[in-house]
Amino acid sequence: MDISTYIALAIYFAAMLAIGLFAYRTNDDDLKGYMLGGRQVSPQVTALSAGASDMSGWMLMGLPGAMFVMGYDTLWIALGLLIGALLNYLLVAPRLRAYTEIANDALTLPDFFAKRFGLENSAVRVTSALVIIVFFTLYTSAGLVAGGKLFESAFSLDYTLGLVITLSVVVAYTLLGGFLAVSLTDFVQGCIMFVALILVPWVAFEQFSSGQELLRQAASSIEPLESALTGMSALAIISSLAWGLGYFGQPHIIVRFMAIRSVQDVKVARNIGMSWMLVTIAGAVSTGLVGVAYVNKFDLSLADPETIFILFSQILFHPLISGFLLAAILAAIMSTISSQLLVSSSSLTEDVYRALSKHQVSADKTVLLGRVGVVVVGVSAFGLALNPDSSILSLVSNAWAGFGAAFGPLVLLSLFWSRMTHKGAMAGIISGAVTVLIWSYAPVMSDGQALNSLLYEMVPGFIVSTVSIVLVSLIDKAPGKAVTAEFAETQLAVKEALQEVNA
């Protein structure tokens, strides 16, 4: 590896730590400052922060690698993600921003769930916090696996050492600056990813005389495009599109909507965020397609398809540019890990420890405990990531489904259905999470496989959770007048804010 590549990566690491130090000096030294940046995050930072924390290393490694395994069927996943992200901006973002502030300034998603029912330290708060900690530990391990593979493949370093380097840098700037540091670094990382996912597929495409040659080379390994339109079963298409359902329940994305400066800023964030996402997903899928063709044309041996972006970075560019492109992978990995660590530690300290503590816990102590929580969750995820054979896409898909099923229906119904009750919310969280776990891991098929070999676990989990919430809520006693009045106040606040934006 050329020294220029190491210099580029060193500059990137230094920049991330500098942003963390800046956020540490800028942040208000209180709970809202550490967890939500004081609710003063601009729409530009919100949009790219949400996108970067959403896509993670699976966009630059998992999604291109999926083209080698699934071929053009991967396009259905991309379409589902785009539709889900857009609906999340339209349905959830403005209402959640208004509701979390009206609901006694809720700072975390579990805190909002509790205050939505006029409660403070309720069962739904602790239960949802535990779900976040469990699934985010799994999700964070997927990011660490990507980091370990990057250092192993690109720098011939030991896989475990790659895990240590990745985790150390992320933990450092997350500990320093909290949510503001995470958001600002995500903004920078989102810009890096945007450029990289335009540059890499474009330069790789230049290695072919025409688009026809590229498609001809790719056709020797993957089925033609028509197969994705006519050859897939209905269950397979539903499974791929169902990735979009997950957006409604992802705490590390939803927390961005809680922190944005105002409801009026949501529209600007949506336009920027969706434009960014459209370009980057197209770039990731294109990288995979060109990668299939390139490997066939030059008869290359690629042991792990999820490293095709790394291969292109090394063989097609000057070492200094290679360093920039490898930094893009680190940017994707770190942006998501940092968000997940912060949300997990917030739930661990604010929604579990502080909620269950019999003694009054000061805000300063909670911030300190939050920093300790970052380390605890990070070390736990490190333990899960020690297996280098783990699939990034597989780990992400399980965690994504877990959050989507446990929280997605609950978030939507919290914002749109005044009749939902606390018992209904509990039923939805538990039934959704349990359904995903059983569907993913129980070997109930005749060949010993789990049911997710037929249908993505998100679909049954989302359906079971929704039905559970509705049935239990209707059986349960209706919410009190105070809760209903707060719900009506939120609807009015959102309506007025959106009218102001449209005017």
Low-confidence regions:
none
Number of helices: 19
Q: What's the alpha carbon Rg, rounded to whole Å?
A: 22 Å
Q: What is the strand content? A: under 5%
What is the arithmetic mean of pLDDT? 82
Determine the oligomeric state from the structure.
single chain
- Class derived from helix and strand content: mainly alpha
Number of domains: 1
Architecture overview:
It is a multi-pass membrane protein. Its main location: membrane. This protein has a single domain, classed as Sodium/glucose cotransporter (Up-down Bundle), CATH 1.20.1730.10. It starts with a helix and ends with a helix. It is globular and about 70 Å long. The longest helix has 47 residues, at 159-205. It is built from 19 helices and no strands. It has 503 residues and is an all-alpha fold. It is 78% helix and 0% strand. It has helices at 3-26, 31-36, 43-70, 74-102, 109-116, 123-155, 159-205, 211-219, 225-231, 234-241, 251-259, 266-297, 308-315, 319-356, 363-384, 392-416, 422-441, 458-475, 481-502.
